[in-house]
Each structure stands twice: as C-alpha cells, then as structure tokens.
Amino acid sequence: MSDPLDRVIIECCLNDGRVNPAQNIEMPRTRTVPTTRPPLTGRISEVAPLQEGEFTQVYRGTLRIPGFKPIDVVIKTDAYAAVARPKAFKREIDAYERQLRSFQGESIPKCYGLYQLEDDDEVTSFLILKFSGLPLDFNVEYPEDLKAEIINKLTTLHHAGFRHGDLEDYNIVVDDGRVMFIDLEDVEPHDCQLKYAIIPDDLVPTSAEFGCKEIYHIVYMLDVWQKQFINFYGSDIYLSEIKPGGAEHLIWRVRLRLQTESEIAQAYAEAEKLIQDVEEWRKWYNTITDEERKFTFISESASASEPEDSGSGSSATDSSSDSEPGNTTLM
Ligand SMILES: [Zn+2]
C-alpha cells in the first residue's frame, strides 16, 4: 500500500529562513496509512527554488533513496509562509494517498509523502512529489492534443467521483505533453452532471446546459469553443453582425482605428475573409446534431489509471516506466 520512505533529510538550508538555517532538515514521514516495510531514509540534495507564493513555496531537488535511482522531485512547503497551514497539507496528503491514490503517476504526480516538523507548537510541512512539469498559462494558445489531454484527464477524474475544487492554470502542470493536476487540498467527492459533448469550435454552451462547472471553466479558459464574438481590429464583433455583404458594417465598427486609404483597403480585405470564414463555420456548425452534443462517457480509462503497486519496491526507480495517459475520446 505504501512506499518504503520513512524519513527524509533535505541537505541544505532552503534560504536564510527559520528552519535550521545552518543544518540539514531531517523529518519523519506523516503516515496516512500504516506500513510494514522496512523504513528507509531519503536525502534530497541540489535544492533550488522553483516558485515563491504567499502561502507556499516550491523547491526542486534530487531525492536519493538507498537502492533506487535518483528522482527529480519538488518540495512544497509552508516554511516561509506568513501562516503555517498544517491542516491544508493534511487534506492534500489525504487526496494523494487515499482519495486519488490510483491516479498517482497518471493525472496527479507520484507522491513521496508528507513530512512535518514540530517546533514550539508550530508545525511546518513539506510535501514531496515527483517533478511533473511547469504550470500552464491560459493566455497561451496550446495545441489541440494538449487541450484534449487536459480535458480527458479532468473528465476521467470527475467520472471517478472527484473534483479538484480549485482548478486554474497554475495548478495544471505539463512536462513533455503530459498533464498533471497539483494543489489537491480542496479535492472533494463529486457527482458529475456533465451532459454535453465537448466539440472544438462548437458554440459556447451555457453553464447550465453543460452541467459541470469545473470542467466548463477549464474548457472555456482553454478556448476550445467558438465564442459569441470575434475580435476584429481590437473590437469585439458579435457573430450575428458578421454576415455576407456586411464588410461595410465591419469597417464602420472599427473606423476610428483606420487612418489611411491603404489601411482601409487592407481592413476591407480582412473583413471579407472574416465573413467567408464565419460562413464556413456556420455551415459546419449546422451539421452538428443534438445527438452528437450529448455527452457519452467511455469509462474504461477510469479503471486503466491504476498504477503499478508502489509497494513492489520498484516504483521509486524509474520515470520511463510510467504508463501512457488514459485516452477518453472527447475531442
Ligand atoms: Zn463534474
């Protein structure tokens, strides 16, 4: 059930903060499930800051456990936060080691445990995870297959009965096209009411039609759907305003941004092109049937997410043994 790591030593002072500034930090593991395996001590070296936040700080380092290959890890801690958050870390380790345990290495990082230091009634927490990439940025236009991977993994999680609870771009990490969800302290049971197929370039449905707020938010932010308006020369033009013979109207809508004859001529050409593109989109849009918009979940990937037994002793050795992400064909 659990991996053999029982204690870690972080070989550094993280910065000149309050935790053992001159020494290594040695901590026992906070067990959420009992283990009968012989205890092992891991050492984390080559520690470097990755991200500084108000509530948590994240470091990257190399974890060495006797008998295992070195592992690229991140250390999430509240050691330098204004307020320690031991309960949030307890909730998060519960998500990793209990609720979403079968998703480790699949849609959440492999977890090497929670370690807590008690000092004068104050508890400082260190959560150790396999490094799984850098955060997404919703301002970037990502390739369709990456968007599909994010949505499929999220949908799989929902249909397994959980929601993330606080999902934004900064807690979706990507490494070499592989997506993982992090910051799991708000994970909770969820009865997903998704009832709408996610079709790229389909017109944005309403949240009520769609049925699930968390998935809706992510699909919307990833710009998968055709929005009700299109940006033309800095103005948001409603789709209903873009129609054959309507180039004059579009030019009128952006006239203050056009100065010279040649700019106006250029804008005309672009207006005609936009009208043509929207007409083509309308033709395609009208081919989607109500039946196609009904969500049907292919449930096999939910059970395919069971990772190798981490108690086998080999789980901590090799990142290349990770299985391929599950495929749910939504897009
Ligand atoms: Zn849902």
Low-confidence stretches: 299-331
CATH architecture type of the largest domain:
2-Layer Sandwich
Q: Indicate the radius of gyration in whole angstroms.
A: 25 Å
CATH domain class of the largest domain: Alpha Beta
Widest sheet: strand ordering: 1-2-6-7-5-4-3
Bulk shape:
elongated
- What is the percentage of strand-forming residues? 15-25%
- Name the CATH homologous superfamily of the largest domain: Phosphorylase Kinase, domain 1
Can you count the beta strands? 14
* Average pLDDT for all residues: 85
Hetero compounds: zinc ion
**Given the helix and strand composition, which structural class is it?**
alpha+beta
Q: What's the number of helices?
A: 8
Sheet bearing the most strands, described? Answer: 7 strands, mixed, barrel
Distance between the termini: 35 Å
Q: Would you kindly provide a written description of the structure presented here, covering whatever features stand out?
A:
This protein has 3 domains: 126 residues, 2-Layer Sandwich (Phosphorylase Kinase, domain 1), CATH 3.30.200.20; 103 residues, Transferase(Phosphotransferase), domain 1 (Orthogonal Bundle), CATH 1.10.510; 57 residues, no CATH class. Helix 5 packs across helix 6. The chain is built from 8 helices and 14 strands. The strands form 4 sheets. The protein has a 7-stranded mixed beta barrel. Strands 8-10-11 form a 3-stranded antiparallel sheet, with helices on one face. The C terminus is likely disordered. Helix content is 25%, strand content 24%. Strand 13 and strand 14 form a beta hairpin. With 331 residues, it is α+β, with helices and mostly antiparallel strands. It starts with a strand and ends in a 28-residue tail after the last helix. The chain is elongated and about 75 Å long. The longest helix is centred in the last third of the chain and has 25 residues. Bound molecules: zinc ion. The site of zinc ion (ZN) has 8 residues, from helix 4.
